[in-house]
Amino acid sequence: MVVTGLTLGLGLLPGIVLVATVGVGGFVAAWHTSPQLSTAFWTTLWSGLMSLGIIVLLGGPTVWYLTRIASPGLAIWGMGLVLVPLFMPPLVLGLVLAYVLGPDTSVGAVLTAWGVTTTNSWFALVVGQVYEALPYFIITAWAGLRRLSPIIEEAAHSLNRKPCEVFWYVTVPLSAPSLIAALAMTWSRVVGAFGAVVILAYHPTGLPVAIWIGLEEVGLAQALPLALWLLVVGLPVPLGFAIRGERRVALRR
Description:
Shape: globular
Radius of gyration: 21 Å
Structural class: mainly alpha
Helix content: over 70%
Distance between the termini: 24 Å
Number of helices: 14
Largest sheet: none
Order of helices and strands: HHHHHHHHHHHHHH
CATH class: Mainly Alpha
CATH superfamily: MetI-like
């Protein structure tokens, strides 16, 4: 009990200190006094939604294939490859992406010919966010789907249900807590992505980069209110997903 209380206290400490230091007045005033806050806020929000959608479109089928179709050996190698960006320092990941996508590279030249700006653009911002957050979605969703027995799905198939019906009405509801946790963790990583993003997309400036700029140019007085706004963007979605996931678990009990 003591260890649990200490752990929870340590987890709450940064948020409590941030709220107490900035205060409601400082939080509201920052929107009017910080020249970058409004643009950075909406940039983070919209790019985060785009990145989350791309991650679900890429990660969902990948997790399904690795847990339901691939052989055990292929699944292990697949997970290893997917998780490579997770074990790379974000700054190193950003350097690698900049090297691959730069305008002087073959990939960058092709994308530029197609009218895609590969650095300091919305494309680059979303790419950085997706690379930093995709492994978190895959590993969390994969853990949940692995625990779901295929026998349940096979029983549904035996009732002449179509694969899409089995997926939506059996697989998704039973694995919902893990999928919700995956979405919550992914959103937090997307909106907080910094290392790869600051190298690929200094502009358009999202909140993490704006916090760093404020710290460099002014100091903590400028950076802390922006950090609280980032907390407002990043925290409600995971909390909402977590509460919904716990309700689902409670109902199943």
